[in-house]
Write a structure and sequence with these properties.
By secondary structure, the protein is α+β, with helices and mostly antiparallel strands. It contains 17 helices and 11 strands. It has helices at residues 15-24, 55-64, 73-76, 80-83, 92-102, 108-130, 138-155, 162-177, 199-225, 232-238, 250-280, 283-295, 307-319, 351-354, 378-383, 398-415, 454-457, and strands at residues 39-43, 48-52, 135-137, 326-329, 334-336, 339-341, 346-349, 416-420, 428-430, 434-436, 441-446. The strands form 4 sheets. It has a 4-stranded mixed beta sheet with strand order 1-2-7-4. The protein has a 3-stranded antiparallel beta sheet with strand order 3-11-8. A two-stranded antiparallel sheet has the order 5-6. The longest helix has 31 residues, at 250-280.
Amino acid sequence: MIPPKPKSRAERVSLWRYMRLFRRDILSAQPEKLYRAWMAEFKTPFFRSYMINDPGLIDLVLKVRPDDFPKSERVGAGLRPILGNSVFLTNGATWKRQRRIIDPSFEGGRLKETYVAMKEAADAAAERLIGQSKRCEVEFEASHATADVIFRTLFSIPIEHETATQVFDAFRRHQKSQPILNLAAFVPVPHWVPRFFRRESVETARVIRSLITDLTRERLADIEAGTAPDDLATKIMTTCDPVTGDRFDLDEMIDQVAIFFLAGHETSAAALSWGLYLLATHPEWQEAVADEAGAWDGSFAGLSKLRVTRDVFRETLRLYPPVPMMVREATRAETFRKRAVRKGAQIVLSPWHLHRNPRFWTEPDLFDPARWSDEATKDAQRTAYMPFSAGPRVCTGAGFAMVEGVLLLARLVAAYRFEPIPDRVPVPEAQLTVRSRNGIWLNVIPRELRDSDPKQRA
């Protein structure tokens, strides 16, 4: 069974047609040949864009000379209403300062400290499914679970907390109303020219940031009073930049909380949803995960024994990387693969295409977690796999996400059997992350019923 993959567009389309396809879904807007290409050039009257799948060039952009290839302001323009000046969008000295303050909170020791809150969220997610009907839209449940993880680990409050619920609801509305790219991604305009956003996008971003502001103000007051819990928010707000000695002020912290929620909730929800779907359509792997999870003692140390679950999650991130493309900008003229690259050109790095490139992966469209224990794929794992980016700008929460993903998969599959619904095959498309166009629907059956009479299960 080949997991769903968007149909590629025709080789040649007009610029207007391409722009319409791109704004709707960047995955199906690309031609099939990009899955094999080392590099591709896209020309418009306004700019040049280069997609690179050459591991050497990817290393150059992300690891060797990252300062020469900052994040593209064009792409970031569409996210600023909600993310402000967060670490996801900044460059240069500002970004480096932000990372110096944020990174210590996500080091290995802190992951163990946040694990209890993660586990509580996973247990709560399993409990919530008890009340669901057999046919369940798991993208919503996954979003609910990962939002719960973020609020518990960041602010020590469950998703049922009034403010947390309001943020979660507003973000779901924002995601549906906001296209992945603003018009500025296609047409270069000065910074002072207003960007035009849909009214609902602006309103939901305002609501989200207002709610986050309230949470952040309350936490700052608790820190001042000496009553703040020792969670991620407190850790980040009280960490000083080792170079300047400064801390985040209120506005900076609001921006960072916004990206923690987006990156820590939305991306993990996308990966968990696809992971459950892949297990539902590959029952032999689902049973292997269930057996492994059933023997697990639930501890943080015991996560290292969930090798099958870990490889399933890795393979999910390969097939459905939550962030399908990343865009950098060349700050000077370059030569890539004997081709001139202009200053200001957009450099596109596409985990979606890299992870499915047959030059690196055998049968790349197949779901095969066994490839992660195969020595023949070690080079591909090292050079052609980057679900969390790479180099200095690698996602600071990558370790957090891996623990969360393995934990949630193990907890849910230990409690339930997931089965596909034949008439509800999901269609991947890129919204803020790689989601399904009409949700991911699965039959969800408690494990204690899996061997019972089929009539009872129905």
